[in-house]
Specification:
alpha+beta, eight-stranded mixed sheet, Nucleoside Triphosphate Pyrophosphohydrolase, 35% helix, 186 residues, globular, single chain
Length: 186
């Protein structure tokens, strides 16, 4: 996947609010300025891919408790060989949850966020320009815990809202609630 493809996908995304609109513009600028936008070796930051995994009723989300960041987050991570961010989101979700049966709801971007990753022994502090995609799997699908997590489990939307104060998580919960309402009225 080339730089133009990603610029088109990012440009086509409709932000949920002003914060996400600002993230979208910053990500567009970042990708325009860096042909290697997806490479982890880019010290300023890099594009990452995440998966917001919901059940078919859109009332539960699969979250993992990240070891390094000590927070409940959606699965996601770094690209590897190429810049296919949707493939990255799927691969990371499968690796981090053990769930292989993930249905892509849409190949359109679900959410865009930028967040700071604290420095550690291997890397200096940097930014993740996170592109998030929406996936679905059955609530009866049992996840497994990877080496990167302390736990993986299903939360109701209300439970995750009370256990995570991240603005981007709250935004994705609201988006999911709107999707559920639109789905039930159809």
């Amino acid at each position: 996947m080339n730089q133009t493809h990603h610029l088109n996908k990012i440009s086509a995304h409709t932000p949920f609010n002003k914060v996400e609109a600002a993230h979208q513009q910053s990500v567009l600028s970042f990708v325009q300025q860096h042909g290697d936008f997806y490479k982890r070796s880019l010290k300023k930051g890099h594009i990452t891919g995440s998966a917001w995994i919901i059940n078919p009723q859109y009332n539960h989300v699969l979250m993992l408790h990240h070891k390094k960041l000590d927070r409940w987050l959606q699965p996601g991570g770094h690209t590897e060989q190429d810049a296919d961010v949707l493939a990255t989101a799927r691969r990371e979700a499968q690796e981090e949850t053990g769930i292989l049966d993930l249905r892509t709801i849409s190949d359109a971007i679900f959410d865009i966020d930028i967040h700071t990753i604290p420095g550690n022994k291997k890397e200096a502090e940097h930014l993740h320009y996170d592109i998030r995609y929406l996936f679905e799997t059955a609530l009866t699908t049992a996840p497994t815990v990877s080496d990167e997590s302390n736990d993986v489990r299903w939360f109701t939307l209300e439970e995750i809202a009370s256990s995570n104060d991240e603005a981007s998580i709250a935004r994705m919960i609201l988006k999911t609630t709107h999707l559920r309402e639109n789905k039930s009225s159809s």
